[in-house]
Amino acid sequence: MPLRGFAFLIVYFVLLGFPLLLTRTSDDETVLSSPFIALRFLIVTAVFAVLAAVAGLWGWLAVRFRVDGDDLVVENGLLRKRARRIPLSRVQAIDLVRPLVTRIFGLTEVRVELAGGDQGEIALRYLGRNAAQQLRAELLARAAGLPGHTPEAPERPLWRTPFGSLLGSLLIRLPVLATVLLFFASLMFMVVAREPGMLAVAVPALLGLIRAVIAPMVMYAGFTAALSPDGVRLRYGLLETRMQTVPPGRVQAVALVEPVLWKALGWARLDVTVAGYAGERQALSSTLLPVAPRAVCLHLISQVFSGTNVDAVPLVPASGRGMALDRADGAGTDERIFVSRHGWPGRRTDVIAHARAQSVRLTVNPMQRLLGLATVHVDAPPGPVKVDAADRELGEARAIVDAVAKRSLAARRAGGDKARWAR
């Protein structure tokens, strides 16, 4: 309630409060208003403070939730109540989010991600830290098919990203280095040639650096990954801290990204498509590891897709790419996963488990039609990871489609019901 009222007052002060205290003279100068206007300001502020408190109290009383058996029931409204009953089997992930302001009050927001796209998020605001952790543990247990009083599963630390490694990984990327050179070159030219118009180049370059370096630093500071029976646990954030738990079976596809300058240091990034996230929430939750040794990334993939070894899958180079500079490029499959690797001098390896494949399709563009080639797409739910094998001979592409379709069907039948994975 205080947080909602505080936000309401901030909007008031920006739009109405401060202008009430200031007046403009005939010399076009801004000065403090007269005592009478100041008194009017205090009266209006008091009224808005009462309205803010009422609005905060109303919003707090309007939301109720409870766990009823295997369902989460969320009720909204005071005069006109609406109840939403969500089966916990639809839970895709549960995040504990603590924005900067709520951390001051020791509060936490519980975000429950459901299968359902843009409308699949439920935000339970704001709980005490211990209450939020207990609620998260209960929801995860029930979603896994266990009793609600099951204690939180222990975790095994996997990786903690050092601050220096995170900063270095953000800086030693070719686009970032090019932007840095552009920024300083434009500043030097502006000073030497006394050309203020170069600000039109320097300012966008600076904004690009803030987005590419500062924003990820703030977001992923203190990043840690741990493994537990209830999934992969991620903790990160400088201003807004987040604890994200991705249950087993919710990861649909992963991408091992190795920019050219990272390869010399043995670094990689692990991107992921998680079922249930959509839109902006997908973008904010698409990184499983921001930077880590390649061996750590491969180990995490083997945990997400149990019993797999990406490097052990034999890859067949694409037809029409006989002049490829990196002969490690290609696509291949085994009984568990489909792997596609491409890119030079940087490299990207896309991986999807057969049990996660939504569909397999073959496409041919006009140029490929002339050359007798095709592209095979192994589709996962919408997300940042797209798995495909491009420029394959038409007969080979059709064989890949048939093989992947059969393996996906067999993997789904053998996997059983994933809704209650703990059983």
TrEMBL record:
Q: Which InterPro entries is this protein grouped with? A: UCP026631, YdbS-like_PH
One Pfam annotation reads: bPH_2
Segments crossing the lipid bilayer: 6-25, 37-61, 170-192, 199-223
Which ranges carry the YdbS-like PH domain?
60-138, 221-284, 335-402
Keyword terms, alphabetized: Membrane, Transmembrane, Transmembrane helix
Origin superkingdom? Bacteria
What's the name of the protein? Answer: PH domain-containing protein
